[in-house]
Amino acid sequence: MNNYKLLPALLSIIKTRNLTQSANELNVTQSAMSKTLKNIRDTFNDPILIKQGNHFILSKRGEKLKRELPSLLQSLDHLYLPSELYIPDCKRKFSIGSSDYVAQFVLPSICSEMKEQAPQSSIEYLLWQQSWLTQLSDHSVDLISTIADEVPENLYGKVMAEDTLVIVIRENHALAQSTISLTDYLAEDHIIISGGGDKDSPIDHSLSKVNKKRKVFAKVPFFQSAMELLVKSDSILTTPLHIAANYSHHYAIKVKPLPIDMNPHKYYILWHAKHHHDQEHKWFRDLCFTECQKHLNETINLGMKLLHGNK
After folding, report:
1. Distances (CA, A) of 56 to 31, 32, 45
2. pTM of the predicted protein model
3. Residues in CB range of 99: below 8 A, 6 or more apart
4. pLDDT computed for residue 78 by the predictor
5. Which of 90, 229, 252, 302 sits at 20 to 30 Å (Cα–Cα) from 72?
């Protein structure tokens, strides 16, 4: 019979690639960890960790185990969960990663629903980075809300809505009453939002195909700071339609169509496969999906009205 007690140690080793760190993590001696690694290598008939210079790399089998083992151990843990889920008793801290915009305009609704349905639960919000998309198994975040072309391997996801990019300028901008051409667009100073994911790089990719690029005036991490800067300058902001529409409630701005054809982008709720059968997680992701989709639908509808009125 296989020794399943080795699996938690194996998971730690393939994550840290360092016996000292794994020994500390599992509260055992380094010699005990070395002995465990030998047992793992014998059991799998594979080195798992291979020394390369001053550090260790994973073997091909080790890389495969790194992808598959978290989900497997999560499934085994679920065997010990109660057969019935009673959400008001949930005391779990959930985590979600997305942009500062979602934190400002959607998170309060999520928290309100959580407090109503599971008053003993809590939440941690993380500013999402696009590079995490292929590394979600290495992060503790339960859920992410982001733009994606498709659901990456080892992730599950649901499409919330489709949106498009638009131009935002202040209401008294010289181009406020005009149709903005590509020449106009390239001649203006641009504000770029750098935090919380990849929102407007598709426009740069499209422009690069015709050997064009934007003239960047300012790069800021948050939507709020971008809007404050926008209304105090003659700059241009390229942003998703629903975000532009929502900020029209708070700032004197105009929403204009882009002078270049762009495919719509999809907003997803995504989670790692290791969480897929977790009933508490399902409750949390369904709650987040509902609140995010509701906000997207409302603001996209408003944005379409603004866009057609400002052409």
Report:
1. 17, 19, 18
2. 0.72
3. 127, 128, 195, 196, 197, 199, 223
4. 65
5. 90
